[in-house]
Amino acid sequence: MNFSVWVIVSILLAVPNQGLAITDRVDDIRSKLEAERKALLDSELKKRGVMGTLYEINKTLGKLEQDITSLESQLAKSQKTVEGYAKRTSYLKMTREKQKVLLRERLRALYKMGFKGYTEVLLSSESGGEFARNLKFLKIVTKRDAELINSFKSTIVKLDHQERKLRSQLKIFVKIQGDLKAEKSRFDSEKAKQSLVLQELERNKETHLMAIKEWREAVRDLDRQLEKMGQSDSTVKELSRGAIYEHKGGLRPPVLREIVQKHGIVKNHRFGTQILHKGLFFAAKQGDRISSLYWGKVAFSGWVNGYGETIIIDHGDHYYSLYAHNSKLLKKTGDSVGQGEIIAESGDTGSLRGPGLYFELRHFSDSLDPVPWLDLRTSRRL
Fold first, then answer.
1. With contact defined as beta carbons under 8 Å apart, do 90 and 241 qualify?
2. Which of 48, 160, 242, 344 is the most buried (most CB within 10 A)?
């Protein structure tokens, strides 16, 4: 025996017992429904938290991808610099080897000549002019030797500097690549975990919805049994009604007119802009009667800049419907309304496109596309 059959059978067994038994059974069902509804709401709140976390993770991953692209571009440029360092290092090494050969030859010649050699060159001069020339020559040779030694020293210093820069740059490359991989891996892992949590919450949601459906059918069967007995119970009637989300796809539109603007991104080709249209715009005529989407309580009734004369209805479980641009409001804040009850007359207050009804459906603060919630078989479509 499945769950629904068990519930119905248990109710039928309870019905013959007097009013007290029925009341007890109703209270039990109401308690079960409330528990499942609370569990569903808790699951929804957790889902919103996970969705928020996933949004932040995706935003961070998007930024990280941009950073990676930017850093890869910088790394490519730096790699060219490293290649330049390598070429420069190779060139300096070749220069160093040549200078070693030249310096070795000069040192060998100086060793053979010694200080005596310089003296003999000067003393061998036979005239003052020749002495001056020999002295000048020796100074040039000495200066050249000093320059050669200094050049060799400078080459060694430059080579050491370039090699240090090369090693430092390579270390930076390795660290940047490692950090990027670790950061992306960490966020990918966290995203995978949150996605699994989200899937589990979705499964829990379906389980709670199924339980609510079963209990709701049980109380409706009880209501039918009471009617057969010529009895009626307001609590049973209220419990039979169900929550708005249980009627998704079967709700009558607030006005039976053509939808001329749907929910979603709207592109302005003239100005090249995009905006999110958060509701539907019905081509209602001036004075058309506007009905409530579902049972609820008027959370707001009055003027809103940009919306004109507006009514917002709280349907419970954080679901709200909004009706804007009305010419006349027939309900005030705090009023209870039934499904399909007339709440306003359409108009063009606050509208930039003439008469019509602007309609929104929200869960918490998020706008929902109303179309999947509505039964549009009786109204014209685009």
1. no
2. 344
CA count, 13 A, side-chain hemisphere, 147: 6
- Percent of residues, the chain, with pLDDT higher than 90: 40
Instruction: Give which of 293, 290, 302 is closest to 350, Cα–Cα.
Output: 302
- pTM higher than 0.70: no
> Could you tell me the sign of the dihedral formed by the alpha carbons of 226, 232, 238, 244, in that order?
positive
DSSP sequence for 220-280: HHHHHHHHHTT---HHHHHHHH--GGGGTT-BPPSS-S-EEE-SEEEEETTTTEEEEE-SE
Query: 271 pLDDT exceeds 70?
Result: no
Comparing CA positions, the residue from 375, 381, 245, 377 lying closest to residue 321 is 245
Per-residue pLDDT reduced to its tens digit, 161-208: 776 777 787 777 778 777 877 888 888 899 999 999 999 999 998 999
Q: How far apart are CA 87 and CA 95, in angstroms?
A: 12
User: Cα separation of 163 and 157, whole Å?
Assistant: 10
- What's CA 305's distance to the chain center, in Å? 30
- DSSP calls for 42-93: HHHHHHHHHHHHHHHHHHHHHHHHHHHHHHHHHHHHHHHHHHHHHHHHHHHH
Beta strand extents in the chain (DSSP E only) = 259-261, 264-268, 273-277, 280-282, 289-291, 296-304, 308-316, 319-329, 336-337, 342-346, 357-363, 366-368
Ramachandran area for residue 18 (φ above 0: left; ψ -120 to 50: alpha; else beta)? beta
Which residue type occupies 205? K
| Average of per-residue pLDDT values in the chain | 81
With beta carbons less than 8 A apart as the criterion, state whether 282 and 371 touch. no
**Which range has the worst mean pLDDT, 40-49, 298-307, 371-380?**
371-380
Number of other CB atoms surrounding residue 253 within 10 Å = 22
**Parallel/antiparallel/unpaired status of strands 308-316 and 273-277:** unpaired
Strands 366-368 and 308-316: unpaired
Among 199, 186, 243, 223, CA closest to 64: 186
Which helix (H) or strand (E) covers residue 132, if one does?
A: helix 128-228
Q: For 358-372, what is each residue's pLDDT tens digit?
A: 999 999 989 999 999
Domain ranges of the chain: 1-242, 251-378
Q: Does domain 251-378 have CATH number 2.70.70.10?
A: yes
